[in-house]
Structure formats: structure tokens, C-alpha cells
Amino acid sequence: MRVLILGCSRIGTGLAHRLALDGHTVTVIEPSMAGLAHLPSSFTGRKLLGQVLDRRILQEAAIEQQDALAAVTPSDDTNVVAARLARLVFHVPRVVARLYSPGAAEIYQRLGIQTVCTTTWGINRIAELLSYSELEPVVSLGSNVDMLDMRLPQLLVGRPVSTLTRPGELQVVAISRDGKTFLPHTETRFEADDLLHLVVVGGAIDQLLALLRQ
Amino acid sequence: MQIMIVGGGEVGSYLADLLLQQGHQIVIIELREGAISALQRAAPRARCIHGNGTDPSLLERAGVRSVDLVAAVTGVDETNLVITSLARLVFNVPRAVARINNPHHSWMFIPEMGVDMALNQADVLAHLVAQDLA
């Protein structure tokens, strides 16, 4: 995949390095020499010094031939504008903008811009880690949905999976039992020592804990 | 007409004053708290709001849904484009005009970014000078 990264801050540097290591063809545009210097010497991608919204630089970076673009400069406005223009003017198929300011993601989605708000993500993540240490998240599926593993509490033995189902909030997606993992249906009954694989929305964690304490 | 001006620096306050004289109702949004009092002196009949004009919830509180026109005249081109995009495409404002600060950025001021009309001061001035020399 050919990827263009706008901005070489911590996220831009890390992203460029990682994608290049994964074998992608990476081009980075960054307005400062100091920014470009963040890239490790082993970085194999292309480095361009210039303003990220300068049309000539974007064309020099072959923006029209890119498969994806990440707008990760320190300015939310620059990222939003760059992402939208990449889609509209240069027809880049996959575009993501990083935002600091929380709250506007939904609105930008309506403008056709996929956003990642590192602030919101960090807040949710830290709050979750602080508030439900009893449950270990295995995978985070975005900023507020987690997959977690939980050994079946004794009091739920013999109860159906529907006991632990809250539509849109909490779902048992798989159960590991006797060395095998299977996908249950709502009537499947829990057995002692089941390892449950759950998907939970951040806000439903409290409900889950309340259920477990009953 | 009801007009919202985002950016209350020299351009914004001059524009507000001019439009007030023509009998329009003006609301101005300005990010720098220190600039608000100067703004109120320059355009005393305008409603001045301190805040970030790219914040959708602030725009709503300032009444963006009921204005006839939004003028994005901050000193940052990207900010002006976020404002016109939000105004025209999210809040359905009938018309949006924008200020271009850096003439190299003029390519971005297109209708798909919510811009009905863009004014490029540097470009106008450069062309006038070039014409004068010709």
C-alpha cells in the first residue's frame, strides 16, 4: 500500500516507521527539518520538506497515486482540511485525520472524514483501566469497545448466555471450554470453569460488574 | 440580514463595522479573549462571543442555524475552511465567504469546502501592482 503521512510529530514519526517496517511505501511531508529529523535513520520511505497544504508539495508526493493518507499534524484544522481535500480533490480512497479536540468527531464523520481523537481515546482508555481492573481487556476495538476475557463466576454456572447479554452493550462472543472455543447462542448454558470472551461498550462495564456482584 | 463573522481581528472588526452601518445584524466570534474589548469598541452594536469558531457546539450556541451568511476571516486558512465547511455543509447556512491569507492556499477554497466566495487580499494587491507597472 502507498501511504502519505502529513506531519512528523510523535504520531507521524511512529506511524511512518511502523508502516515502512510493515512493507508499505511511505511518503512523509513535514514543514520543519527538526520534525523530519525525528524519523529514524533506518526509515526507508520518502521524506519531503514543505507545507502540508501546499499543492505543489502534495503533487510532488504523488498524492493522486496514494492508497491512503493520514493527516497527523499538530493542528486539528489542518488535519480536517487536508483529509477532506485528499478525498475530494485527489480521490485518495482511505483517509484518516487525527484530532486533539474531542466532541466533533461525529460531525466530521458527516463531512466524510474519518477521525481519531487521541484525547478522547486516551481519556476513555485510562478511565476504563482505572475503573475495571477486575476485568482484563484483551483487545480494544476502537476507543470505547473492548474485548475481554473472564473466568465464569460461580454464581452463573448453569445460567444461559442471555444472562450476560445486553443488546448494543454487552455480548458473550465466544466460550472456551475443555480446550475448545466455540460461539454460543443465547440459550447456551454456562458451565463451571468456562472462559468467557466478552465484547463490552465502555459505559456498560459498570453494569457488567454489578451483574457479577449479584 | 443576520451575519456571523468568525475572526475578530482587524479584518473582522472592520467588516462588522461596515455591515452594521448597512443595517445588518452581526455576531462576531473571536478566539483571543484579549481582543474582545477592542472588538466591542470597534463594533459596539455587534454581539461579540469569545470562543473557538471551529467548535460546532459554540457555533450552534452563537446561532449559526439562523444566520443568512457566515464570513470566515481569521488569519489561518485551514481554520477558515473548517468554518465554511461546518457552516454550509453541516449547519445549512445559505452562503459562506472566506478570507485567503496565503495566496498558495487559494486552491483549497472551493465550493466542496463550503466556500461560495473567497477573497485573496495578497492576490488582489499583487495584481493591482503588476497592472500598475505594465
The CATH class of chain B is identified as Alpha Beta
Shape of chain B: globular
State Rg of chain A. 22 Å
Distance between termini of chain B? 41 Å
Largest interface: A-B, 21 and 21 residues
Helix content estimate of chain A: 25-40%
Classify the beta-strand content of chain B into a percent band. 15-25%
CATH topology of chain B: the name is Rossmann fold
Number of strands of chain B: 6
Main β sheet profile of chain B? 6 strands, parallel
Beta fraction of the residues of chain A? 25-35%
Low-confidence stretches of chain B: none
> Based on CA inertia axes, which overall geometry of chain A fits?
elongated
Kindly describe this structure.
The complex is a heterodimer of chains A (214) and B (134). With 214 residues, chain A is α/β, with parallel strands linked by helices. Chain A has two domains: 2-121, Rossmann fold (3-Layer(aba) Sandwich); 132-213, Alpha-Beta Plaits (2-Layer Sandwich). Chain A contains seven helices and eleven strands. Chain A has helices spanning 10-21, 33-36, 55-60, 76-88, 105-110, 118-131, 205-213, and strands at 2-6, 25-30, 46-49, 68-71, 94-99, 114-117, 136-140, 145-151, 170-177, 180-182, 195-201. A six-stranded parallel β-sheet of chain A has the order 3-2-1-4-5-6, sandwiched between helices. Chain A has a five-stranded antiparallel β-sheet with strand order 7-8-11-9-10, with no helix packed on it. In chain A, strand 9 (170-177) and strand 10 form a beta hairpin. The longest helix of chain A has 14 residues, at 118-131. Chain B has 134 residues and is an alpha/beta fold. Chain B has a single domain, classed as 3-Layer(aba) Sandwich (Rossmann fold). Chain B is built from five helices and six strands; from the N terminus they run E-H-E-H-E-H-E-H-E-E-H. Chain B has helices at 10-21, 36-42, 56-61, 77-90, 121-133, and strands at residues 2-6, 25-30, 47-50, 69-72, 95-100, 117-120. Chain B has a six-stranded parallel β-sheet, with helices on both faces. In chain B, helix 1 links the parallel strand 1 (2-6) and strand 2. Chain B is globular. The N and C termini of chain B lie far apart (41 Å). The mean pLDDT of chain B is 94. The chains are: A alpha/beta (214), B alpha/beta (134). Chains A and B meet through helix 4 of A and helix 4 of B.
